[in-house]
């Protein structure tokens, strides 16, 4: 991981995780000059996007999501 080529190609990047602090992660493997990729955020925490997925992608209502929480499903 300390190889000069790994460092030169930015194959390891540091990101700030909300609960784990600073993490070293694998960088973007494909480097395109006109559309470079970037690590904008760390991996989500467990359940971070559950409500968003249920609401926006699966069409659950706020009441249905609340019911799932009350049942202990979420």
What does this structure look like?
The protein has 74 residues and is α+β, with helices and mostly antiparallel strands. The chain has one domain (4-30, 45-71). The chain is 31% helix and 16% strand. It contains 3 helices and 2 strands. A two-stranded antiparallel ribbon has the order 1-2. The longest helix is centred in the C-terminal third of the chain and has 10 residues, at 62-71. The radius of gyration is 18 Å and the shape is elongated. The protein starts with a helix and ends with a helix. The mean pLDDT is 90.
Can you tag this structure with a few keywords?
74 residues, alpha+beta, two-stranded antiparallel sheet, elongated
Quick structural overview:
The chain is of the alpha+beta class and 74 residues long. It contains three helices and two strands. It is 31% helix and 16% strand.
Topology, pairings included?
Blueprint: H1 4-8, E1 12-17, E2 21-26, H2 50-57, H3 62-71
The profile of the biggest β sheet is: 2 strands, antiparallel
| Percent helix range | 25-40%
* Number of DSSP strand runs: 2
* Integer count of domains: 1
């Amino acid at each position: 991981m300390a190889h000069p080529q790994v460092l030169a190609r930015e194959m390891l990047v540091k990101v700030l995780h909300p609960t784990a602090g600073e993490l070293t992660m694998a960088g973007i493997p494909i480097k395109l000059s006109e559309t470079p990729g970037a690590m904008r955020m760390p991996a989500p925490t467990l359940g971070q996007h559950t409500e968003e997925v249920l609401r926006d992608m699966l069409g659950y209502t706020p009441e249905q999501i609340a019911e799932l929480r009350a049942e202990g499903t979420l």
